[in-house]
């Protein structure tokens, strides 16, 4: 497993499951994986959108879309079962599904806190443990968890999101220690300001403030997260586990 034949696609004959895969970063990751020879199963809370996304990626021979609520362990079981029944294995798991419910701690409701912790942290735990159960039997696999720079530095108005994203780092490292001897790697990505529908809905004043913190002077693109996810999912990173890669344009180094 050390080294890679550059003449063949990096993910040839591998099956990847991507949560939150109907749009944004999740879709960009799935698209990059397909370009590198993978078959993908997309999970998303929006069942119609995820079916459309799967069709766009090539349809049933290449991509399958499944409605999935990552806070439900039964839904995550069904998502992984769809990957095994459609393509025979689960080689890569990308836990990307997420939501924001930003508010200052003074005004945040208990429900807003619980929702964000549930989707990000419990959802990532569900995806990691359920995928690991399959990968353990195969004696190989790569799990990529999406944290955030907000989980490193803490951002005002995001006590829920920062807590969840910091938790994903701890979860990933603990899981990496449990699974390393079974040939399963677990790594995390911390994106910074990435241009998506969600971030572009920000008030201009907040966007400008965030931009001023980025040494590279621009927001990142979803394809730039996808490239790092590809690295962590492929044998290019075969001696890495428990790592956290910041993809931020230098913000908060």
From TrEMBL:
Species in which this protein is naturally found: Skermania pinensis
Top-level EC class as recorded in UniProt: oxidoreductase
GO molecular function terms listed in the Swiss-Prot or TrEMBL record: 3-oxoacyl-[acyl-carrier-protein] reductase (NADPH) activity
Taxonomic lineage from the root: Bacteria, Bacillati, Actinomycetota, Actinomycetes, Mycobacteriales
Family affiliation: Belongs to the short-chain dehydrogenases/reductases (SDR) family.
EC numbers for this chain: 1.1.1.100
Ketoreductase domain span: 14-197
Protein name (database record): 3-oxoacyl-ACP reductase FabG
Keyword terms of this UniProt record: Oxidoreductase
